[in-house]
């Protein structure tokens, strides 16, 4: 038997968010044809599980455990088989082979890929190496089979799409980066956060499809450390995406609907463990000032906008991973895919 967590639904006049539910195949449909259903997942690490129907599937990184060709094959076969018309994916810090900035993978692969494997494009009798070739992995992510299945892989780039035939056009920006975290891939020094985040454009929706969270929003670890990016938090009042999707911190799985006020520079602070009475530390404290520093020439919205913040990590971790029936499986109770219905 599965752990029973119960139903958790967040509702407004333009958003309906299913955070927790018993059966992925028995969710109510969107309110009308004027709504679009986004199904959010993250940190699947080459595991597979039941995913609700939707117009758009969004995966926010950690597609694999360590970025091997074998791991990508399993993940992409699963994602490609899902019925969603559009499937938008990014990398995370575990997808090691995709991080080729400054030859990062070439310099670090021996620390992770220690088991010999034949490179995907070599013959069986070729010399074996732990090094993972990038070309066959990119073929899985961006080749004809992925394209025909509706898969779009984003790495620091924007994309526009129609979720439904004749429907409105949505825009998304995807970034795999997160602040330094145990020397994995796509990590950046917090001193470089402002430069990186300033490149994020304002898009119609789903702007900040990032792997790592903003500081103070579903970023609290079991060690009571907030590990999110302060610069990303400071930029959000300018960008105000309809959905801000991330993962990375497995125990932070959850969702929150925030309404922005006109001219506001304040971002919410919300965690799964809201009973911790503030006894935590910030990884960012040694690097950044507390004040909000908004970049120019971006203007604040006139107000009335809402952002659905989603940590969609599906790896069960933390005290919510355990129930009377044992530990929850990947994508199981407490760590379901989070479903967001948005009014077009």
UniProtKB/TrEMBL annotation:
<dbReference type="InterPro" id="IPR051693">
    <property type="entry name" value="UPF0046_metallophosphoest"/>
</dbReference>
<dbReference type="InterPro" id="IPR029052">
    <property type="entry name" value="Metallo-depent_PP-like"/>
</dbReference>
<protein>
    <recommendedName>
        <fullName>Calcineurin-like phosphoesterase domain-containing protein</fullName>
    </recommendedName>
</protein>
<feature type="domain" description="Calcineurin-like phosphoesterase">
    <location>
        <begin position="37"/>
        <end position="251"/>
    </location>
</feature>
<dbReference type="InterPro" id="IPR004843">
    <property type="entry name" value="Calcineurin-like_PHP"/>
</dbReference>
<dbReference type="Pfam" id="PF00149">
    <property type="entry name" value="Metallophos"/>
</dbReference>
<dbReference type="GO" id="GO:0016787">
    <property type="term" value="F:hydrolase activity"/>
</dbReference>
